[in-house]
Amino acid sequence: MALGTMVSRATGLIRQVLQAAALGTGLLASTYNTANTVPTSLYTLLIGGALNAVLVPQLVRARTTQPDGGRAYEQRLVTLVLCVLGVGTALAVWAAPNIVSLYMRDTPDSHESFELTVVFARFLLPQIFFYGLFSILGQVLNAREKFGAMMWTPVLNNIVLIGMFGTYLGLMTIPERVEDITTTQVQLLGIGTTAGIVLQALALIPFVRAAGFRFRPRFDWRGTGLGKSIHAAKWTLLFVLANQVALTVVTNYANAADQELPHAGAGYSAYMYAQTIWMLPQSIVTVSLVTALLPRMSKAAAEGRIPDLCADLSRVLRITGVVIVPAAFLFLALGPQISTVLFAHGAADAASTQPLGQMLQAFGLGLIPFSAQYLLLRAFYAFEDTRTPFLMAAWIAVVNLALATACHLLLPARWAVTGMAAAYALSYVSGVALTAWLLRKKLGSRIDNDGALRRTYAKLILAAAVAGATGWGIARVCAGTLDTGTWGTALTLAAGTAAMALAYLLLARLLRISELRRLPGLR
């Protein structure tokens, strides 16, 4: 699973580098990226949150308690999900201008960028249905403890997009302004992006068939247990709504910065690229382990084995921390160098990627509470408690929105979105503290009764902080002797990263961080 996720994220990174080379990091890129945010946000609102967090425990329970092994329940659930997605997708395409207006302001000065975003959105909104198809088929596989296919099929999407952006770069003149993009370029980007998601979803069909699932439409939803699932999903949908409200407002603020400074690279696209890089360690390590762990935690919760649940959660927190903590300090120490090496190509130059690097630094240490929050919430989902995660999401969203609004109103456009990245990180610091306290009340005991979790994280933070300072120092020395171009920055980044890695591994050994040896799995 981790290998599949790693390949998926690696190809996704290549795709994103090509995307930045093709579209840059300014306003033109933000029209495409904003339009591409809309289908994922609407899919998540329609059904995605419920699928990912609530329905796996329900599917596992149906397979173990119902006489037919949960087959009828699965078919009713898949039918219901596809119906909701079909109707929701059609309505979204129809209402595209109104939806886009939530993410980007339509003013006389920015009307062309707004109209381009609407055109992109109409091409991309059909993705909603195929995101949902991919997720529901993936959850059917997860309930059967078949995790690999869902981790590998996104690679197909990335390959399509790599080919699309490669074609765009190789065959067409790269536009610098919104006004310069042609109809052919818009069609290539719109159709190609949606085709990748379609292929990703359809590629799961052979795997679910091999796992024994046969889809038969069933509309006899009443009195079959789906009502319980929908009721349980109520809080998860509110959880998703809280996150999406925060995302929408921050996207609007960031697009406003782009509209004020269209070529500075200090708006939404830079924020999105920085956040994607920042989340890579979480996506590769934490999500993979949690996908495997959630069915086991759900079973332990159902059987009342609280000590086993706590042990699993503590172990995963410690194992993921071995990667998450040093990665957070790496972003803090070397964010500008990372952004230059990855994104200063094609339509983007070194100057326009500096705000992106500073946003990566601002996100930086927030990766630690972000990852921990993701893990802790899974304990609530194992108990089918979706109300508490909603309350936590609402709290984090309120803190994030308050801080982001302050940045938008008080900081100049050049620094406003960098401040919003720091606001996002700080909101998770406040969230994880409250979540840990509520989970202790839920379980009736600490996750960390023996103190192993606190000791491990203290050692990890100490080792990563010293290593990060070492890497930053080496990078500063190299920057003073090498040129400031992309290749010189690449050598600086390599030297700083190598120094940090060596210092971290040495200190981890001296501090006897045993989890470093157990990283490959939950042994």
Tell me the layout of helices and strands.
Blueprint: H1 2-23, H2 27-53, H3 55-65, H4 71-94, H5 96-103, H6 111-124, H7 127-143, H8 148-152, H9 154-171, H10 183-202, H11 205-210, H12 226-260, H13 268-302, H14 306-343, H15 350-363, H16 367-382, H17 387-410, H18 413-443, H19 452-481, H20 486-510
Question: What are its keywords?
Answer:
globular, 523 residues, 20 helices, mainly alpha
Description of the molecule:
The protein is mainly alpha-helical and 523 residues long. 80% of the residues lie in helices and 0% in strands. It has helices spanning 2-23, 27-53, 55-65, 71-94, 96-103, 111-124, 127-143, 148-152, 154-171, 183-202, 205-210, 226-260, 268-302, 306-343, 350-363, 367-382, 387-410, 413-443, 452-481, 486-510. The longest helix has 38 residues, at 306-343. The mean pLDDT is 86.
In short:
The protein is an all-alpha fold. It is built from 20 helices and no strands.
Please report which band the strand proportion falls in: under 5%, 5-15%, 15-25%, 25-35%, 35-45% or over 45%: under 5%
Give the CA-based shape: globular
- Using the CA coordinates, give the radius of gyration: 23 Å
**Percent of residues in helices:** over 70%
Judged by helices, strands and strand pairing, the structural class is mainly alpha
Give me the strand/helix succession: HHHHHHHHHHHHHHHHHHHH
Counted beta strands: 0
